[in-house]
Please model this.
Amino acid sequence: MDLLFLSRLQFAMTAAFHFLFVPMTLGVVVLVAIMQTFWYKTGEERWLKLVKFFGKLFLINFAIGVVTGISLEFQFGMNWAEYSKYVGDIFGVPLAIEATVAFFLESVFLGLWIFGWNKVSKKIHLISIWMVALGSNLSALWILFANGFMQRPVGYILANGRVELVNFSEFLLNQYGWVKFFHTVFGAYVVGAFFVMGVSAYHLLKNRESVFRSSFKLAAYFGALSSVFVFIFGDFHAKDISKFQPTKFAAMESVWETKKGADYPLIVVPDEKNEKNLVEAIKIPKFLSILAAYNPNYEVKGLRDFSKEDRPPVLITFLSFRIMVVLGFLFIALSFISVYLSYKNKLDNILFLKAMLYSIPLPYIAMQLGWIVAEVGRQPWAVYGLLKTKDAVSQNLSLNQVIFSFLGYGLVYTFLGILGFYLMVKNAKKSID
Amino acid sequence: MEYLQITWFVLWSVLWVVYFALDGFDLGSGILMNFISKNDDEKRAVINTVGPFWDGNEVWLITAGGATFAAFPKAYANMFSWFYIPLFMVLIGLILRGVSFEMRGKTESKKIWDVFIFVGSLLPVFLLGVAFGNIWSGVNITEKGYTEGTLGLLNFNGILTGFTFVVFVCMHGALWLYYKIEGEFKLRIYGVVRKIWYVSAFLFGIFILFIPHTLNPNFNLNSFSGYLTVIFYGLAAFMIILIKKSIDKGRDYISFLKSFVFMIFWFAGGFASQYPNLIPSKNMEFNVSIFNSSSSFYTLKIMTIVALVFVPIVVAYQIWIYKTLNHKINPVDKESLFY
Model:
């Protein structure tokens, strides 16, 4: 157990935990805002009931999400001081802008939304929930600009022993960051859609005429649209990865040998130790090259072309990516079936409703896997090609300090996890008909 | 270059000052809640006064952290890794406190949340006080950085400043509650306000006497930073007397506003005294200053534009929301209690 490993574990744990709550915030707030817009336009009681119901679940989720976010921003300085010194000139910028432009909007207007019922006009109240939605989505944009730089550094020079920003517009127009933003945010909308569909399905199983028909239908359309966009931007994203992060792309697909016009095996069993795949079966000709660059003769780099210490862990990256992709197709299928059944007014298939209820965790899992691909796949780099993770860790910490904070976070986050789950289930089961 | 670094020292200080002046009252309310409330409805009333605002106030801390990162990355990296354990405890405190505000009303058992709200409010204030007490009196930095750990921070200056932070924040919180709460509970809070004022005035005197910065070898009374420090502390002393006058007249809103101004002047004095250092060192050779820790000219320029455009917008809508939700809360009127 060394300090670097423990710091990495702590960052992974705190980021993964925080990221359980972020996607639901991003997705459900948009759905709640749409519901409230319907209520504002139609004055129909059912939409108000749904706003209050899902608003409450949103707030439980938001509370844990917001408090666990601060420790991430502070950890860069606390555990990754060398990283902060080396890239702070660039990396600090989107973080500071995120707080100024997005967090204030989100937090201040959420206060108004919670306490503003009957105190401000319906219109102002509606605007406040849209402001929360705007703020949380903007915060995703800025944090993904920051992450986009770590994946594909642009707009910088090396000067004074560090990375310095020289072209802010190049930084802002980093295609890697934008595509990642849309891929992630639409993924978060899928989380929100499946959450709302799943909870609605639970209530529809009890009462077929429930107001939850309306929320199910809305979320089905939202989920169908979002899951398609996740796919489209995921495909774009793969092109950027193969171009800018060949080691990550090779690990995602477990490619060992460089090849032109590479086939795509549907079944792969990687053997990381011997630098090959034990099984490669059901090959689609040249498809891997198409996935990498829309070009059937594109040369896909294999991992053997890179020295061992420059490769990411293959098995984790590969499995996470494969499972995520399979789940992504499942979301498209499930949400289109949901749209069809809602449209035909046939939401009475018990088996399907149950399936939707138990599908709630799946998009969460897909989001986590996506982040594992992004972050584990970037290893051994903290900033791709510029700074290795092992050189990023704070130099003046003692192991005991990090053990203390690691255990502390573990304890507190376990408590928050149990609490959040308990309150979410309890409140999600309450009937509003 | 230099004028941008100085601009960012000012902006950096402003972010911290506004953070303490704003979050101060909800942290103070959190510390006092269990001691001034007779029953659960009164506790709920306290939480409801800060309910719409605490999160927005806390964003000033995140912004201060982010601005330190963007404008002075080396100072950010040093400050946060050198003060590792205290900062970790600040974070844990804020996490438990924030969650408690939101969850208390949604669970059967209230005891644990009451403890978290108290500890989660007290710990961050005290520890930030300890940290700034050490900064304002100079940190023992060697060529290896600061290596004396948490215990090394718990010296006389650190502890004195920590207590001072706690007491001032309690006064600020008590005046906030005195302004926001109605009915019989308000009268009891008034009693608390009067008592806390004396403790605050006393500690202010002690603080001035032992002003931690007299121990900071970088501090020079006969300099621009020295003059500013004296002016800000003088204004703070003046405000604390004015607060007493308003309290005696029972003017709740005005007393709170004066307390707000007092917090601004007092913290401004502290930050003025450390100029141009972000982490002054006992051994002046190792000062972490705005000149040796800042970002590049280009980055500072972009950040200045961002700050000048967006901070006024944030301030405008935050003030607007305080005005919009300026209703008073009476624990007897359960309709007014959301949480």
